[in-house]
Amino acid sequence: MSGEVLERNLEHLRAEFAHAETPDLPKHVRLRNAVLSAIRKGHFRPGDQLPPEQELSRAVGVSLGTVQRALTRLAADRALTREHGRGTFIARSELPVEELWQFRFVERLGEAPLPVSVEFVDRRLLRGPGPWADALGPDEKGYWELTRKLTVNGDFRCLSRLYARLGRFPKIMKLPQSKMTGNLKRVLADEFDVPTLSLDQFILPCVLDDDVCASLQIDRGSSGMVVNAIGRSIGQEIITFQSLFVPAGGYFLEISPSGNRAPGGRHERRSN
């Protein structure tokens, strides 16, 4: 790390620590929050190296033990990786972004995933309550909703709705439509330097809503399931909320653990 880069990084962290100072919070918590804030503002990208602990201690004006405690907590949160003899780095995803394409369908257990094509339907700005707001938290600028159809193996359709906070991704409504038909996690990583490091997924068997049935051109009142997925980034920040509406059908949906959160078991569930 060059002297110029080191000083610039230290200045970013000094400024964030000064802004984050709250009398009722311990210094190691304030330093942790300052590092996370610097990451979210784009001052550090995944894979970037943090300044050495002693330099950070002097720049911020806290003890070396306080720095080590803050960085240890950030490493436990999977926001940082610490490599002996090399230093401390902003975390990268432990899986290729393709592995975070969480909706994989197979015809038989153990077989390779079936091909999936994606069709753009709509994107719009939402204001007000909803499950997306419950998951993502409040945002005075509103929420971005992207609706797409997924066609599995050329003959089975699902509907996807993905949400993100507009205040977190202010330019997302201006991205070209061509970017909206691929892996959105790659778009967030490439365009905003916000990697998806893990996914939490929840399944609810249900009768599909009328508007979903109409969009998928299936009978009103059809049964199926909703798969809700919460995407997390550095420091366990929740960045996306996604609902996949899956009608009853003949394919298995593979639900796999992914990313930097503690993995659980693998489950296969048939949509019938």
TrEMBL record:
Specify the HTH gntR-type domain's residue ranges: 25-93
Signal peptide residues on this chain, from the entry's feature table: none
- GO MF: DNA binding; DNA-binding transcription factor activity
Q: Where on the tree of life does the source sit, at the highest rank?
A: Bacteria
The answer on whether this UniProt entry bears the keyword Transcription reads: yes
Keyword set, alphabetical order: DNA-binding, Transcription, Transcription regulation
Q: Which GO terms describe its biological process?
A: negative regulation of DNA-templated transcription
A UniProt-annotated Pfam family: GntR
Q: Does the keyword Lipid metabolism apply?
A: no
Annotated protein name in UniProt: DNA-binding transcriptional regulator, GntR family
Q: Which organism is it from?
A: Bradyrhizobium lablabi
Recite the lineage of the species.
Bacteria, Pseudomonadati, Pseudomonadota, Alphaproteobacteria, Hyphomicrobiales
